[in-house]
Queue: 2 jobs
Job 1
Amino acid sequence: MSLLFHGRETTPKVRKQSLWQRIRGGFTNHIRQILASLGELWRTPLASIMTIAVLGLSITLPSTLYILVKNSSQVTAGWGQAGEISLYLKEQTTLEQANGTLLSVRLMTEIADVELITAEQALLDFEAQSGLTNTLSYLDENPLPHVLVVTPKREHLAPTAAEHLLERLERLTHVDFGKLDIEWLKRLTAILSIASDIVWIIALLLCISVVLIIGNTIRLNILNQREEIIVMKLVGATDNFIRFPFLYTGIWYGLLGGLMAWFLVVFILWWIQSGIEALAELYQADFVLSGLDLTALTVILGLAVMLGLLGSYISVQKHIKEIEPK
Amino acid sequence: MIKFANVSKTYSGGQIALQKVNFEVKAGEMAFLTGHSGAGKSTILKLISLMERPSVGEVFINGHDLNQLRRKDIPYVRRDIGMIFQSHQLLMDRTVFDNVALPLVIEGYSRKHIVRRVSAALELVGLRNKQELSPKTLSGGEQQRVGIARAIVNNPPLLLADEPTGNLDPKLSLEIFHLFEQLNNRGMSIFIATHDLGLIARMKHRTLTLNQGRMIEDALQEDMFGVTTKLPGDMR
């Protein structure tokens, strides 16, 4: 009795806690609520697993597509020869003039490398590759021009930039014309761009669905605990005190869903790795599928947690205020 | 502690629940509120427990004017009112200990402090040995005592009880009323709404009587069954 009534407040004032007591109390409550919300998931394993599975699958799809698009971009980025420009010099250009043009091109900032293939060298190569040695010996003179094979720097390999560079090179004095086969590269770039857009759209739609799924799950949780919320409000719980366990539940859903998505992505990549390696071998390419690095993992988990928090926040904001003791 | 000044309450739909009600319960006082069903007892309790606001007039609870109170401050004012309900309002999926500890947990007290106070409260209501049980396994009287322990565990200056003995047998009812007297003797203000005129008759405390939303009597118990105290004109 003495303990219970120790420090009795008989004055009609709301008891005030010191700043330290409030900080300590708030911290203690948050720890309790984090653990209690995890315990709540544990107490309803089937419902929790189903919700987490839906979230995990929803996050897995865009994550996997993102990785595939990223790998495709890496592959095409490695195709530097696709951006090579062949500059055919005018027929009467001498070797000295060709070397002068070579020097001019080499000095241009957009150029990574340039190589001169003389008319003689070109003829020898043609003879070797075509097997027409005897036939070509009947020609009076070499019909082939000197050619400069220009490799632009990486930032000028994109179709539009490469076209602009070609226009500049064609204006050089001894250049007859240049050739850049970029149509197929344009198509590939367009396809990858569309694929990337589709991935983003799918990701956006699935993110919205994740928010809605978590929001609805939290709404049901709130309605199931309606009586408990009323009792808590009657004994002095603030909206924040009631709100936080549901927010933490949303965060747990997001985190566990994100982890599941990560496991699934790793599994899917492992599954298709052998097939992709076999395909790469057919093209004599040394290609290794790159998976989720630490940054990507952090992004997936962070995004999942944010979606969980957003879904639960929307639901909590709407429903907690509506429940009042009557 | 509680002050009603010319309070009227009309619900949406035009139902008049209270008409110009005036009364005051001072610190350390114990008072009963009685009246027939529909007399307005529940409305007065809802006003005191901050579930409703008056349509007209002023209600002061622990010095706070309900008309001025912001929504976000309501929980803090409620922490100074211990509430006991006829339906107990216990959380059946938690233990007796957890139910009683709830107000302290909400205020963020340490585990050690909570254990000490909950044990003391359960000791007072005679349920110390049942703290690990679920309220579902307890009788109606025991559940009511759990509700009382929860209401007093954080030592509020005001205790509000709505038909606290409504579902209990006479012997248990008397025990609970004696418990209220004990608490009152320790300085707690107590306001009890009840139909149980028999019990009221056995206790010598102030009794407020409502009829059709009007306060028709404000008398000391010893007068109720003998001489009716005449209320001042502005109190009727």
Note: Residues 8-14 of chain A have pLDDT under 50 and may be disordered.
Job 2
Amino acid sequence: MKNKVKNLLWPLAFGIALILAWQFGVFHKILDLKPFQLPVPTEIASTLAANLPKALKDCGVTISGALIGMIIGSFMGFMIAAMATFFPKWGYGGMIVVTALNAVPIVALSPIMNLWFSTGMAQKIAVVTVVCMAAMAINAYSGLNNLNPYSIDLMHSVAANKWTIFRKLRLPNSLPHIFTASKINIASSIIAAIISEYFAASTSGLGFGIKDNLRKAEMAMGWSYIVVASLAGVILYCIILLVERDALKWHASQK
Amino acid sequence: MKKSKLTSVLAVIMLILLVATGCSSGTSATSTPGAGTSGAEKNASGKLDKVTLQLKWLPQSQFMGYYVAKAKGYYKDEGIDLEILPGGSDIIPEQQVYNGVADIGVTWVSSLMKYQSQGWGLVQVGQIFQKSAMLLVSKTSAGINSAADLKGKKVGSWFGGNEYEIYALLEANGLKKDTDLKLVQQDYTMNQLLNNEIDAASAMTYNEYGLLLESGLKDSDLHVINMNDAGVAMLEDCLFVNSDWIAKNQDLYVRFLKASIKGWAEACADPEAAGKVVFDADQSVSLSHQVYMAKEVAKLVVPKDFDPANIGYIDMDAIKQTADLAHKYGLLTKPAVISEDTVTSKYWKEATAK
Amino acid sequence: MAIAKKEQRVVAIVWVIGIIVVWELAAFLLKYVVHDPMAATKLPYPHAVAMTFLENWKMLLEAGAVTFSRAALGFALGTSVGILLAVFMSLSKTMERIAFPYLIVSQMIPVLGLAPIIFNIVRDMNVSRVVIAAYITFFPVSVNMLSGLKSVEQDKKDLLFSIAANKFKVYQKLMFPFAMSYLFTGLKIAAPMAVTASILVDMLGSKSGIGVKILYALYSNSSNIFWASVLTSAFMGIISFYIVVFAERLCLPWQNTTPGKEGVRA
């Protein structure tokens, strides 16, 4: 219990200190910025409060796209990793392809995806899917294959078949890696969704709001969108953490 | 054993760092010769003042006057060593100039007014485009023959400050932007219109309209709504500087303007050659497109019955209209302050004085 | 082992050929079966892209080199920061409590939205480019390194402490070697990300680099150059990935992450 309080208290104290420093112009002084370049927290908060319904609607659009894309992408990534594990000879090629996809700059593909998909939502999901696939495939692959020495020999010695080995040995072993990938993917899926909105054929979403307002010198409005995006990401991240804690009670990292 | 592993990891990281720094110093070495040669030339005629110009967008004939003046050495004649910084999707000229990354910037007047109204100490010191180049283009098959026909259609805009002429156009024709039609974001290409995903698209006369022609459409296939004809034109490319910078560099700016006007006049007189100069400076788009753009831009910089000697002239009525429209359609929350501190013809008069 | 390697090469070649055939077929279908008027932009023929690449290889490689060197610099900076942060967080629970939530928050801020703000703060285009690339890369490195360091079982740590090893020794002998495989997993994700970041930064506005080529091609509707540039960036990402794989093999030869060995084992 005491630990839990500490868990909350420290970052909270740090955060409050940070916000106070920001509010009272410490950052402005250090970085030599004017309030109209970097709005202070109270201004951001009041702007956000005034535009909350619109911000939440935009947030819903972005986050739902990011989540759907992340789920599809993670699933595909895991399947590729599993294929590469089952068929090490031919399947590994899939890993190479995924890594290659990971290297394609998504921003560049966004306008092309505009042509492939007529709605902004489908385009967003497609971009996020591609982005999330690679991190999951790489992590899941290393989880499925970095086994304890001799454990596979042990499985062979009890005449376990490939499928049993996968279920009883590889899958549990890959769980921590899968959660690591999910944590990375939460962050990158939101970023990818936002970036794709910079180019999407729609005027909703956090990405459009950030870009549009920053260009128009509506700094406070732009920042309030950034705040909403960050909060949404943190909440999703916390959900993953909670699931991980329950699923990985046995693992050293949770002790 | 393990220690040696650790050492090898460190060694690899060091190696990466070394390669990286090596590469980056390599690139900076390759990128300097351009600046270096002009530096060597200027040293013969005395010391040159370094000035950086931030463009609003990619290097293209939209900014041909500066490229021509640079290529012909007009800046050097005025004792200036000019560096031209290309723009990009996330480069905001107002911020670059305010931060001192660039000395002089090119932007749209309405956008500049917005920054000024937020307290940014920037001042407009020249107006290059006398006309608005903004069009709403549709395929004739869409049946949009006048602005009123936009009702119920899907219309593209770049937003980020570029949507206000469209807002004004709609309002002037009794259309409500939120309910009567659907405004969507347009990317840098014209693919959405070509692909029939939108009914009408924003286009600049000198650029996107040309892209449509290059993709095989003819003038007769397209219907155009021109903002100038519709009476909702807002001024576009202008020159602006940081108020603090200009206070100390009045003479320098006048010299820059003199050379730029000379470059623009020459470019507008011979757009074909100007397009070639821009293409040679930075091969961002094809030569034919640069030449097309140069010809169209010339019409905006030196419209009919406009004396090329007056390039850069700030038409206060047009400024006023831009400010009024920007305020009326929501870009500005309060009317723009038009004074010597925000828009000044002082330097232009000095530069054009005989 | 030698046979496995040869087989591996055959597999790779078959995959590459397979992808090209599928792509070529898809482009053909799009153009002649679906009759899509935008086929050449949506999905051009791979051979047309390859031709464009060969015609412009010098320009593309030069642009690629500029971008790659920026990516390497950002990657090096991001990796160092990421590892340092992970070590600090593993040293003290308080530190982790304070820093970790903010690490996450930092990743939720879209870097492209940050770009104008970073320009505002750094006021030097070249420095801000490297900062953005580093900003994107440090997170996967940090998260992976930290989970590696935390995965060391307590008994092992206790054992080392019981033979009077100090904290530095424990890190050097136990924690770092243990966390290495996690670190490299992070690096494998981060390396292509650094390249992507570097390309993004080019697209924000720059004089040279592959991102600039992409932007110009996009803008001027030259779809073959566009696709050739995208292909070049994909190659750059793959190369960066393999540099990390190579480094991993060099540093952790006992690891089993290379496909050849896998084949022998499973």
Note: Residues 39-254 of chain A form a domain with the MetI-like fold fold (CATH 1.10.3720.10).
